[in-house]
């Protein structure tokens, strides 16, 4: 088996590669066929997925059995001011991969986001709920989902949220850095979601690889909290003496409307390959413990 990973230098792509190489994740062993797979990791400097001709040429040379698309333009505020770029990377890129994967009879795993929903509600969202993005980021990611469904037949669309991993920039590292420099920080307490450890997400993506359980998935940490709750737990587990104070989103004006409620329910996982996602607190505790070591 040959697995091609786009966006391989990001926090999720890096995590997937590390798990395949070790044959296991923090959650346990991965399928043997995946553990023995040939890995081709590429990033934007090696392939511009927004070019159909370049994508077709590269995939025809590599001939992967599975493509895991971790490439995305995730600068949420940047999407608002660079809409064409966001659309090219988040929509045209997945479209191109879907077209060529269909030509090659290749499976496509495409990573999406909680931002495809409106952010209004109080009950965890299942995969079949109506989407309704309110930001350019969310709209372009939803367009990418639609292209994948339109052009590929062997696809897994996996929505995640509040992702953090050992590699790259994320909320956990930002809070730890600020906590060491400041006596207190203000963190919004009116947005709820699911913190997700990249290790857990990567493990479940690799569980899907050998299956034919195609469709749309939600894959986030178990349980929900606010960014304030998340930040408090980070300080506590990191043993950083910094007070975390709750505030409202209106106190941090942004060009992008963030979802007030975007908690996801991993219903499709439960009903197919199984949901082993750790609680967000447990996954965070092990993450920070590993950082200390």
UniProtKB/TrEMBL annotation:
Gene that specifies this protein: rfbD
This enzyme's EC code(s): 1.1.1.133
UniProt keyword list: NADP, Oxidoreductase
NCBIfam families listed in its UniProt record: rmlD
Annotated CDD domains: dTDP_HR_like_SDR_e
Species name: Clostridium yunnanense
Transmembrane parts of this sequence: none
Pathway per the UniProt entry: Carbohydrate biosynthesis; dTDP-L-rhamnose biosynthesis
Xref: Gene3D superfamilies: NAD(P)-binding Rossmann-like Domain, UDP-galactose 4-epimerase, domain 1
InterPro entries registered for this protein in UniProt: dTDP_dehydrorham_reduct, NAD(P)-bd_dom_sf, RmlD-like-bd
Family designation: Belongs to the dTDP-4-dehydrorhamnose reductase family.
The keyword Oxidoreductase appears for this protein: yes
Keyword Protein biosynthesis on entry: no
Free-text function comment from the UniProt entry: Catalyzes the reduction of dTDP-6-deoxy-L-lyxo-4-hexulose to yield dTDP-L-rhamnose.
GO MF assignments: dTDP-4-dehydrorhamnose reductase activity
Domain RmlD-like substrate binding span(s) in chain numbering: 1-291
Protein name: dTDP-4-dehydrorhamnose reductase
């Amino acid at each position: 088996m040959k697995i091609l990973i786009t966006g391989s230098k990001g926090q999720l792509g890096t995590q997937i590669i590390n798990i395949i190489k070790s044959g296991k994740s923090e959650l346990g062993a991965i399928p043997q066929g995946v553990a023995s797979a040939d890995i081709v990791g590429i990033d934007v400097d090696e392939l511009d997925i927004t070019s159909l001709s370049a994508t077709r040429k590269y995939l025809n040379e590599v001939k992967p059995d599975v493509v895991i698309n971790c490439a995305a333009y995730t600068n949420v505020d940047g999407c608002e001011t660079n809409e064409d770029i966001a659309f090219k990377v988040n929509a045209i890129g997945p479209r191109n991969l879907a077209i060529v994967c269909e030509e090659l009879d290749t499976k496509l795993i495409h990573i999406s986001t909680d931002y495809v929903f409106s952010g209004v509600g109080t009950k965890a969202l299942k995969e079949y709920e109506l989407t309704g993005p309110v930001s350019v980021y969310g709209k372009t990611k939803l367009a990418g989902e639609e292209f994948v469904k339109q052009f590929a037949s062997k696809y897994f669309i996996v929505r995640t949220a509040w992702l953090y991993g050992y590699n790259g920039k994320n909320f956990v590292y930002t809070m730890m850095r600020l906590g060491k420099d400041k006596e207190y920080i203000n963190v919004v307490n009116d947005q709820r979601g699911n913190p997700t450890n990249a290790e857990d997400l990567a493990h479940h993506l690799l569980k899907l690889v050998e299956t034919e359980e195609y469709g749309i998935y939600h894959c986030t940490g178990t349980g929900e909290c606010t960014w304030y709750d998340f930040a408090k737990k980070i300080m506590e587990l990191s043993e950083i003496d910094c007070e975390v104070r709750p505030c409202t989103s209106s106190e941090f004006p942004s060009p992008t409307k963030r979802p007030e409620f975007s908690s996801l329910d991993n219903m499709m996982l439960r009903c197919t390959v199984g949901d082993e996602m750790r609680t967000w607190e447990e996954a965070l505790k092990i993450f920070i413990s590993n950082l200390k070591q």
